[in-house]
Amino acid sequence: MRKNVGKMDRVVRIALAVVLIILAYAKIIPANLTIATYVVAAIIAITGFVRICPLYKMLHKSTVREEPPQFN
What is the number of structural domains in the chain? Predict the structure, then answer.
């Protein structure tokens, strides 16, 4: 499967996942939303690590920059 998550997008996703996990663990997020927050953080982290986002695929979007052709 072709990667559709670029470098900066990947960093933002992983950082956001970490922040959500910290907020849920520190009980800043209400108790009834804690499980949902962990699930969302896990999904965001997984898409960041594997660099494939199913939503981007459905929308035909990609944040990966195309490499310029190498001329030798």
Answer: 1
Rounded Cα distance, 20 and 36, in Å: 10
Question: Residue 11: how many CB atoms within 10 A of its CB?
Answer: 11
Q: Over the stretch 17-52, which tens digit does the pLDDT of each residue have?
A: 999 999 999 999 999 999 999 999 999 999 999 999
pTM: 0.83
Residue 42 is assigned to a structural domain of this protein: yes
**What's the chain's length in residues?**
72
**Is residue 43 in some structural domain?**
yes
> CA 41, CA 6: separation in Å to the nearest integer?
18
Q: Which domain holds residue 12?
A: 7-58
